[in-house]
From TrEMBL:
Signal peptide: none annotated. CDD domains: nuc_hydro_IU_UC_XIUA. This is Cytidine uridine-specific hydrolase. GO terms for cellular component: cytosol. GO terms for molecular function: purine nucleosidase activity. It comes from Lentilactobacillus kisonensis DSM 19906 = JCM 15041. Keywords: Glycosidase, Hydrolase. GO terms for biological process: purine nucleoside catabolic process. Residues 4-293 form the Inosine/uridine-preferring nucleoside hydrolase domain. The lineage of its organism: Bacteria, Bacillati, Bacillota, Bacilli, Lactobacillales. It comes from the Bacteria.
Length: 304
């Protein structure tokens, strides 16, 4: 099993990503680091505990950052609802949180104890992964790869040219992309290619209590926009880890804009080599939408 650490801000698509990652037979999720992003750190932490309790997965939870490195907090509660996971009455929490350890230290501990390379999955702002890299640069030798959902090939969903996870903390994204780590990334556009359409949501609804839970969360996503299809962005990062063959991937240079007055957080995915810089990431440029959909439903069924 591949050891994995997940940095996440649940969030509805994060919730699905966590469910799939913690139930998949090829992954061993060693640590989850909730972070401020879609909603506050207090809420993403609580949501992580709710999910792990619901799925009965006693995984270590160490809360990470409550704000970006340099910039003010901007959340996405307009998309994910006030709590980040509205609409489902989760059972009483049974999974504790380790508030005594710094997230970067906890990541270092997992990596030090592991006999195999650890995969870091980032599906929220990159603040905690950046702090970890800053504090434990030598650990990157034992990080197999960093797999991210974030950035965009073109325009953004946070700013004109910036996607939420990179746009909320551009400096952190910059640290990650200049770290020399092996990086793979599923940008916004591949998430949009793989929208979950109403027929799929209806299939998921039939999957017992898990289906019921997700269907209820989905019905609050963007205030309930089933018909236009739901963006399951973060599940794409998990698919990149578990089933990379679903994607077309291109080795390229990704530059993170940090100084642009209007463009900070933009990810320049330099597919045509304009910048003349060495490749530092593999970017997923396309996903097989039909196969992704089948994979998605099957993986959710496994969480039951
Ligand atoms: C990303 O931003 C968040 O709102 C989602 O959870 C996802 O990680 C998409 O841009
Ligand atoms: Ca997220």
């Amino acid at each position: 099993k591949k050891p994995v650490i997940i940095s996440t801000d649940p969030g509805i698509d994060d919730a699905v990503a966590i469910a799939i990652a913690t139930s998949n037979e090829t992954l061993d999720v060693k640590l989850i680091v909730p972070i401020s992003g879609n909603v506050s750190l207090a809420k993403t932490t609580l949501n992580t505990q709710k999910l792990l309790t619901f799925f009965n997965k006693p995984i270590r939870v160490v809360p990470g950052s409550n704000k970006p490195l340099l910039r003010p907090v901007k959340d996405a509660s307009g998309v994910h609802g006030k709590t980040g996971m509205d609409g489902y009455p989760f059972p009483e929490i049974k999974i504790p949180v380790d508030n005594k350890t710094l997230a970067a230290t906890a990541m270092h501990q997992v990596i030090s104890e592991s006999t195999e390379p650890v995969t870091l999955v980032g599906i929220g702002p990159l603040t905690d992964i950046a702090l970890f890299i800053h504090q434990y640069p030598d650990d990157l030798k034992k990080v197999g790869e960093i797999v991210l959902m974030g950035g965009s090939l073109g325009r953004g969903n946070f700013g004109v040219l910036s996607e939420f996870n990179f746009g909320t903390d551009p400096e952190a994204a910059k640290i990650v992309f200049t770290s020399g780590a092996q990086i793979r990334v599923a940008p916004m556009e591949v998430g949009r290619q793989a929208k979950i359409m109403p027929e799929t949501s209806n299939k998921i609804k039939t999957l017992g209590s898990v289906g019921d839970m997700f269907y209820k969360l989905f019905s609050k996503y963007r205030g309930g926009s089933f018909n236009k299809g739901l963006n399951m962005y973060d599940a794409l990062a998990i698919a990149l880890v578990i089933k990379p063959e679903l994607f077309e991937q291109v080795e390229t240079h990704v530059e993170i804009e940090t100084t642009g007055r209007y463009t900070a957080g933009a990810s320049l995915m330099d597919l045509k080599g304009y910048l003349g810089m060495p490749n530092n990431a593999r970017v997923a440029t396309n996903v097989d939408t039909k196969q992704f959909e089948d994979w998605f439903v099957k993986e959710i069924a496994k969480t039951m």
